[in-house]
Amino acid sequence: MTDTAVYAAGGVVWRLVDGKLHVLVVHRTAYADLTLPKGKVEPGESLAETAAREIFEETGIRVALGVPVGVSKYRLPSKRQKIVHYWSAEASDDAIRASTFVPNKEIAAVEWLTPRKALARLSYPVDIEILENFLAFVDDGILATFPIVVLRHGKAVAREDWSGPDAERPLTDRGRRQAKAAVGPLRAFGVRKVISSDAVRCADTVAPLAKALRTQVRTTAALSQDAWEAGTSDPRSVIGKRIRARKPVVLCSHGPVLPDILSELALATGTLRGSYLGSASALETGAFSVVHLSATNPGSGIVAIETHDPKV
Ligand SMILES: Nc1nc2c([nH]c(=O)n2[C@H]2C[C@H](O)[C@@H](COP(=O)(O)OP(=O)(O)OP(=O)(O)O)O2)c(=O)[nH]1
Asked: Where is the Nudix hydrolase domain positioned along the sequence (predicted)?
């Protein structure tokens, strides 16, 4: 078959060396070319997980993903189309110190280059375009970012099939599968803190993530549907605190509450409101939107939003 595309993902990995921006390129052993780190999606994996895994496998550096910086498309020698999704990713000093890279049959060497040198030396025009997209963010003053992820709880038992209090309505089997499936992609974005509506269907959606992170779910009525229906929900206080903390976080809430959460995020960061806020908050169960904010200046507005649907 030549008509099915091959999907892959990777990153523009960056660091500051004496205040000067450098990006990471890989010298591939078999092709003797110079590319951005990337690789093919494995079965059951989301593109974000692929990007973080491939960056680690090819460079030995563990990263959390930053903003999406584009999608490249090219024809393989076999004539199949290749589609590669890229994110920016900061290489922290700790991650560089812990690098496990040794030359191998895939990658002969990794090299930190200034953007100018990387643009001149990358082997493929599609990689140059991706690097240019990343540099456009840099020109706008955006480099380090952190995500506030807004997640809709997994599929829950229907209201009419549940006789107990609504806040105790449980997840269905599918909802539990969605909760498990969200762990990998949320970790790829570096989420470390887990905040949830105190409804069972929300807390149970992020329970597998909290377990994987060896942390606790912090539950709050401020993000709950009961409070929203009573007019006492308070996403503003949660959002304000998370923006001041500037750390990757997930907020798990309910369909009707999500538009308020997104709108508070826009207000708290001085972002012009647009239709994209509507699509970012109209999530199916188990889906999430990643809102990327500048770590140095979150008040400069939302840098990027991406929405991920569950794989189950
Ligand atoms: N990376 C890359 N390879 C290209 C491009 N154009 C092009 O003809 N090639 C050639 C180089 C190789 O002979 C062949 C496959 O390279 P590849 O990087 O897409 O695929 P791969 O399976 O070796 O690697 P990976 O995706 O698992 O990292 O395609 C291009 O724009 N980028």
From this structure: 6-135
